[in-house]
Amino acid sequence: MKNVKSFAFVHACTLLFGLSALIGNRADSGIMTLIFGRGVFAFLALAAIMLVFVRCSTRARLSDIGRLMLSGALLGLHWICFFNGVKQGGIAVGTLGFACFPAFVTLFEAIIVRQLPSATDGIIIILIISGLLVISHNSAGSAIFSPGLAWGIAAGFTNAIFIIFNRYVRTSATPLESSLWLCAGCTLFSLPGARGLFQSSFEDLGMLMILGIFCTALAFTLLIFGSRDSSAKSVSFIIALEPVYAILLAWILLAQPVNLSTGFGASLIVGAAILSTQFNKQA
């Protein structure tokens, strides 16, 4: 029963991450305002969670906070690319472009450890490139990447940098503390968007609150507690389904169906992401 509950938490987290793509696509606010609103509402919600529900002293040192806030700035850079992708290319194209990040992680790891990618790594990269080419041909009408897909790929690239940074830069902070200071760093990074927050419509403010409180603070919290009784491989497998959840939500809530070509490209990319999580946990 405990594992079922943990899996439900991680699936709910992934669903909320997918919902963030819909909000980014529908909101009229500028990109920096989206990121600032997401960061500040998430920071406030996480601070409230820690004050009310978590009775423990802080573990993060000042140097840890600095590293986490720098990581938060990288997260903000990733969100710039991600929201541009879903705004310019649509939810399916933007999220699937982002889903190419395992290929970049594989390449970055190969550079860092000075080792050629394995045969499995090569298969993963080929699957991702093939999926991107299929989606690109469908979205741009040619083999040239559309702006939305290019932004989505940039989101995958910056997400890979974020992952590698956090893999090699260790801190003594708890997971909730890490999430809190990540959001603080992201908020500072997107400070130019603060003015736009006060000029947003009530509808946009509502969406930004959902984006920050539910799609970020609650999602991070669900991921943290869901990961406690689940293997890292299982969690990675579920998180790799984020584009699937985003596309399904867009279909159900916004009546945006996916054609066969995009669906085929999606299956290649998501399949590669799942293969990547399986292989990396066995290595």
TrEMBL record:
Q: Name one GO cellular component term.
A: membrane
Protein location:
Cell membrane
User: Where are its TM segments located?
Assistant: 31-53, 65-85, 91-112, 119-137, 149-168, 180-199, 205-225, 237-254, 260-279
Record flagged with keyword Transmembrane: yes
> Which UniProt keywords are present, listed alphabetically?
Cell membrane, Membrane, Transmembrane, Transmembrane helix
Lipid bilayer topology: Multi-pass membrane protein
Query: Could you tell me which InterPro entries the record lists for this protein?
Result: EamA_dom, EmrE-like
Location of the EamA domain = 12-136, 147-276
The keyword Endoplasmic reticulum is annotated on this UniProt entry: no
Protein family according to the UniProt entry: Belongs to the EamA transporter family.
Q: Which PANTHER family does this UniProt record tie to the protein?
A: ACYL-MALONYL CONDENSING ENZYME-RELATED (PTHR22911)
Name this polypeptide is given? Putative transporter ydeD
State the species of origin.
Erwinia piriflorinigrans CFBP 5888
